[in-house]
Design a protein that fits this description.
By secondary structure, this protein is mostly beta strands. The protein is 0% helix and 51% strand. The protein folds into 8 domains: 94 residues, Immunoglobulins (Immunoglobulin-like, Sandwich); 95 residues, Immunoglobulin-like; 64 residues, Sandwich (Immunoglobulin-like), CATH 2.60.40; 164 residues, Jelly Rolls (Sandwich); 106 residues, Sandwich (Immunoglobulin-like); 91 residues, Sandwich (Immunoglobulin-like); 90 residues, Immunoglobulins (Immunoglobulin-like, Sandwich), CATH 2.60.40.10; 67 residues. Strands 21, 23, 24, 26, 29 and 31 form a 6-stranded antiparallel sheet that branches. Strands 2-9-8-4-6 form a 5-stranded mixed sheet, with no helix packed on it. A 5-stranded mixed sheet has the order 11-17-16-13-14, with no helix packed on it. The radius of gyration is 50 Å and the shape is flat. Keywords: Calcium, Integrin, Ion transport, Repeat, Signal, Transport.
């Protein structure tokens, strides 16, 4: 028989009020209000087993009222915020015990906002230019709000999302471009999200009128072996324009956008400055941002290539490639098998240019260096930019960062050049200004320290660093050319000049070297040492050139300077040119046949080869039979001809001859043909004068037209649209006739057309105006002694006749004298005496 205990007790749980995820475990106590006679199993439960896990049960021993248990706090990478977890203790028929513990999340809720230190108005949209990071992951998508303190300078999206399970999100930066000169402005971007601390970061926005800092200055700072003829050079600063490259900063943390190739001994790694290279070199931080690229080899030999294909836009003035590299060559020297180079290729891997490669003598273990190259010649093309490392001899670490290809339309930049012997050049030291990126200095003093600075200037200016260099006395050698002669020898005399000597003894060795000329057949080898004592500035030596009568090309040999002491070489090699003075037959280049229209100019420049010497000139001429008007410049060979109307259509053979003024004379001739097409020309219509007439007048004239074509075309006259009613013109004779009326009063515009029957039909036109004034109207009568005067409306310049009669049936009689109107009113006085009645009329004299 089973007996069930119906006695009850109350359970309770004692826990710490709070704990952190990092605590790992906490101790809890289960208490019973009465001690059981037998062992009692207490079931335990957690409201969130992803945060606190506890044993499924514990035992309260007989006669005891409590038992201790351990709760495990799970530490994760999630951002859970602080949360209360409920633990429950249960025994059947007993009253459950519960207790809550507050668990503090140990992932902080601070946001991190990453922005570039600076950007330019001309950058347009900077893809993935900003980034927001959190310190852990969230269970659901996290929405963040972004804002800019000045949207006229920098715009950001209002909302971005960090997906669940991720710790960051990128966003684009948009820089509106404007023409205002604002210099550099700091813009604050703010990021916020519910449950997170708001964060802000700033970026400096540089306007387009502030030029970037000049880079890649030469000569290098603190160098001492420069010639006294120094060319200062620099590259325009970088950062302007719209980015065309993907992930050139590697801030995505991977190689998105890039392709890599290489052998199994080498690899490119995106790294954050914590990866030690296999070469054993020190760890290097990125040039900027959180990531850079490391190319390394596990063993030698190693080959690496990093490339990306880019379409370069057409409608921009300039495209610039820039990058920052740190070259670490543990072989100590560079050659074609131990080299870093940058190649511009087409997408079929045909090399178009090599804008940079390491050379023998370059610094083997360099630091971060900014470089750039002009890609403007490749606008409108798809190119492949490739960074290549050949490490066949020893470890070769290549660090890359800030790779960029920007298409820009920058304002013109002026570079002010300051040069001084003072370590702080100032305004009085302005040497000059240029829009180029180089400047040649001459006649500097040896052993003098010079300080120079480039200031880039638009509406605002950006000063470059102040660099220093000094010079050594400088040796220069000239090239020599001479005729070989027909026999014996001729001396080719070379001059070595010393510039900038300060009183020391200077020496240099010289020797000959074959080119296309070979010793001893063409010249005699020589070598030696030239010594310049203090005060001496010039030395000469000669090379004997052998003459012959062979007709052969010009030939070259070289003079090599070496081993200078107390001086530097401006040129290490000079060229000797042996001119062939054996006359040769001139050769006229072929002339292509041509097809042209009559009355159209044809121009062709002939070319020929002959003697190399200016005193044996070539002369051009036309053989007999050339068409009238054709001519050729005897010195330049430029042929010109404009066929007349009479010369088309036709086929003309023309012979051009080139002659050499030699004895005996030599010449060459080429014949070519020109086909002249007949072209219909528009007829020419004579000028038609504007007219002013009275209503009722007949306007008539004969229009004249000429057709210049041969043979002459037939001409047809007509009137253009809008001609007044009643106006007409003879189709073949051009006779125009129009009887005006009161309905035509005002200005009438009439166009006469003449059309030929050529192919195609061509038309000429003349437009004239006829102003139709009202008929003459008697305006007034005025007594004038024994007669009276009549006034009427008139057209200035027209002539009128006044007639009268004493009875209505009588004959009209002319008053003496015609009247030519000088104004819109005309007048005639009748002094024939008064009568009881008299009639008058006004007539227009044709």
């Amino acid at each position: 028989m089973n007996v069930l205990d119906n006695e009850s007790a109350t359970l309770s749980i004692i826990l710490p009020g709070s704990a952190s995820e990092a605590d790992g475990t906490i101790q809890g106590i289960i208490n019973a209000s009465a001690a059981p006679d037998n062992d009692i199993t207490v079931s335990l439960a957690s409201s969130d087993t992803n945060t606190i896990q506890i044993p499924p049960s514990i035992t309260i021993s007989a006669g005891q009222t409590s038992s201790v248990f351990t709760a495990t706090i799970l530490n994760d990478t999630r951002i859970n915020w602080d949360r209360s977890i409920l633990l429950t203790a249960h025994v059947a028929n007993w009253i459950d015990g519960t207790a809550a513990v507050l668990i503090h999340d140990d992932e902080n809720t601070n946001l991190t906002l990453q922005l570039p230190a600076q950007a330019r108005q001309s950058n347009g949209t900077i893809t993935n230019g900003g980034r927001v990071l959190i310190q852990g992951i969230v269970a659901t998508n996290l929405s963040l709000s972004l804002s800019s303190s000045d949207t006229t300078k920098l715009q950001v999206p209002a909302l971005i999302t960090i997906p669940s399970g991720q710790t960051s999100a990128f966003f684009n930066l948009i820089l509106p471009n404007n023409i205002q000169t604002n210099g550099t402005q700091s813009v604050q971007v703010t990021a916020s999200a519910m449950g997170f601390a708001t964060v802000g970061a700033s970026v400096s926005i540089i306007d387009s009128q502030t030029p970037p800092l000049p880079i890649y200055l030469n000569p290098p700072n603190l160098t001492t072996n420069n010639p006294v003829f120094v060319q200062l050079s620099w590259r325009p600063g970088v950062g302007e324009g719209v980015e065309q490259l993907v992930n050139g900063t590697f801030e995505l943390g991977d190689l998105t956008g890039w392709s890599t190739t290489g052998n199994t001994n080498a690899a490119f790694l995106v790294e954050d400055g914590t990866i030690p290279p296999a070469s054993g070199d020190i760890v290097s931080a990125p040039f900027s941002g959180g990531y850079s690229l490391l190319g390394e080899q596990s063993t030698v030999p190693g080959f690496l290539e990093l490339s990306q294909d880019i379409w370069l836009p057409t409608n921009v003035p300039s495209v610039t490639l820039s990058w920052v590299d740190m070259i670490r060559n543990f072989n100590g020297s560079f050659d074609t098998n131990q080299q870093f180079r940058v190649e511009i290729r087409n997408t079929n891997n045909v090399i178009l240019a090599v804008p940079f490669k390491t050379e023998a003598g370059d610094l083997a273990l360099a630091e971060w260096t900014q470089r750039s190259a002009d890609l403007t010649p490749y606008k409108g093309q798809a190119i492949r930019v490739a960074f290549v490392v050949d490490a066949s001899q020893d470890f070769f670490d290549l660090h890359l960062d800030e790779i960029s290809i920007r298409a820009a339309n920058p304002p013109l930049t002026t570079y002010d050049i300051y040069l001084s012997t003072n370590s702080l050049p100032g305004a009085p030291d302005l040497f000059g200004s240029t829009t180029n990126t180089f400047c040649t200095l001459s006649n500097l003093n040896a052993f003098q320290n010079y300080y120079w600075q480039i200031v880039a200037r638009r509406a605002s200016e950006t000063p470059g660093p102040i660099w220093s260099f000094s010079c050594l006395p400088t040796l220069l050698i000239n090239d020599v050319s001479l005729r070989e002669g027909n026999s014996g020898t001729t001396n080719a005399t070379f001059t070595v000049t010393l510039a900038g000597n300060n009183g020391q003894i200077v020496s240099v060795s010289f020797s000959t070297l074959d080119g296309t000329a070979n010793a001893p057949a063409d010249y005699t080898t020589t070598n030696g040492t030239l010594t310049f004592n203090p005060g001496e500035t010039s030395k000469t030596f000669s090379v004997r050139v052998k003459g012959d009568t062979n007709n052969e090309p010009d030939e070259t040999f070289f003079i090599v300077l070496s081993n200078p002491t107390n001086a530097v070489l401006a040129r290490a090699q000079a060229t000797g040119i042996i001119l062939n003075d054996d006359l040769k037959q001139p050769i006229l280049a072929g002339i292509p046949n041509a097809v042209i229209n009559e009355l159209t100019a044809f121009v062709y420049t002939n070319s020929a080869t002959g003697s190399s010497f200016s005193d044996v000139p070539l002369s051009y001429s036309l053989d007999a039979g050339a068409p009238a008007g054709a001519q050729i410049n005897s010195q330049t060979g430029i042929f010109t001809w404009t066929p007349t109307e009479a010369q088309g259509p036709g086929l003309y053979a023309i012979t051009v001859r080139v002659s050499e003024n030699s004895s005996p004379p030599r010449s060459d001739a080429k014949t070519f043909s020109i086909t002249v097409n007949e072209v219909n020309s528009a007829p020419s219509l004579g000028i038609i004068s504007n007219l002013t007439v009275h209503a009722g007048s007949l306007v008539s004239f004969t229009a004249t037209a000429v057709d210049g074509d041969i043979p002459t075309n037939h001409l047809i006259f007509s009137l253009g649209a809008g001609a007044p009613s009643g106006a007409g013109i003879g189709a073949t004779n051009g006779f125009f006739s129009w009887l005006t009326s009161e309905a035509n009063e005002g200005t009438n515009s009439i166009t006469v057309l003449v059309t030929d029957d050529g192919s195609p039909n061509l038309t000429a036109s003349r437009t004239f105006t006829v102003v139709v004034a009202p008929r003459p109207q008697i305006n007034s009568f005025a007594l004038n002694g024994a007669g009276f005067c009549i006034s009427w409306t008139a057209i200035p310049g027209m002539t009128y006749r006044v007639q009268s009669k004493n009875t209505i049936y009588g004959a009209w009689l002319d008053l003496p004298g015609l009247v030519t109107a000088a104004s819109p009113m005309a007048q005639k006085c009748d002094n024939s005496g008064l009568s009881l009645e008299r009639f008058y009329r006004i007539q227009l004299v044709p």
